[in-house]
Specification:
The protein contains five helices and 17 strands.
Length: 290
């Protein structure tokens, strides 16, 4: 059932698992403290929020994001980023669009993407991501959001006990880069061991923090055992009972909590244009669940 907040913002669940639609607010305009507080509460409750029918410039998107924390920036200089100098350092284009020289003007252009947490391979993963839909293909390119609180609750008690206090190695695009030797020298490759079970810094709830795309191994146990356990965890994360699949509409902005969700992209026709604009919110070191 939809709930109406004091400032006439309406929050409507998108599924029984995760996510809500937020209507009655124009996020291109400055927001008062009460509205930000209400959106924050809804974000903590629903993990993923979708704002339909928005008309946002990149500056307006960044201004909205800054209500909820400091925005992340790209480490490369403007001339080295595919977006070029016309885009703020905090902006990434998720697109298959090419320029007149045949070069992609953004990142992550084509195809399916496995479930992952954004920036989980960094010492301080980004706490949130905001993605704004500009151009969409006729079919596919949906985003699946998995509830990692719920995934944790579904883990058998004996396995929870076995994994309590353990860490797992997160490696940038591990399952897309088969040449990575995770038992060798990882210098030059973004990687970080993170707690398998994490405590959310604001809700204090426990979430599972592994994913198929980036999690390479569980530290301190044999690889065959690690692979088997990870596959069991991935199957919990990826079951249809644990995720919501969002079908995008142009002009929507989605914001999600990377501490307690992971997400995946479905395939779409490579010849059809897809363009979304991303920014992120800086986070802190992951907190192990006690």
């Amino acid at each position: 059932m939809a709930s109406v907040l004091k400032s006439q913002i309406m929050v409507t669940p998108l599924s029984e698992v995760i996510g809500a639609k937020v209507s009655g607010v124009d996020i291109s305009k400055p927001l008062d403290k009460e509205t930000v507080k209400q959106i924050t509460r809804a974000w903590l409750d629903y993990i993923v929020l979708v704002f339909p029918n928005q008309d946002l410039t990149q500056d307006q998107q960044l201004s909205f994001a800054k209500h909820f924390g400091n925005t992340g920036t790209r480490s490369r200089r403007p001339e080295q980023r595919p977006e070029g100098a016309n885009y703020d350092a905090g902006i990434m284009l998720i697109t298959n669009v090419k320029d007149d020289k045949g070069r992609y003007v953004g990142s992550l252009p084509d195809g399916e993407m496995y479930f992952h947490h954004d920036m989980c391979y960094m010492p301080k993963p980004h706490k949130g991501t905001m993605l704004y839909a500009i151009d969409l293909p006729s079919t596919g390119g949906h985003t699946r959001f998995s509830n990692m609180y719920r995934a944790y609750q579904k883990i058998p008690g004996s396995l929870k006990k076995q994994l309590a206090g353990r860490t797992a190695l997160q490696v940038y695009d591990f399952h897309m880069t088969e040449t990575v030797d995770i038992d060798g020298n990882l210098d030059g490759i973004h990687n970080k061991s993170q707690p398998i079970f994490v405590r959310h810094p604001e809700t204090s709830r426990t979430a599972l923090y592994v994913n198929r795309l980036m999690t390479a191994k569980i530290d301190g146990i044999p690889r065959d055992e690690s692979d088997a356990i990870l596959e069991e965890l991935f199957s919990i994360i990826e079951t249809t009972e644990n995720y919501y699949e969002h079908v995008w509409t142009e002009g929507e902005l989605a914001m999600w909590d990377n501490y307690c969700s992971c997400h995946a992209r479905t395939d779409f026709p490579a010849e059809e244009r897809r363009l979304l604009r991303r920014c992120t919110l800086l986070g802190e070191e992951m907190i192990p669940a006690s």
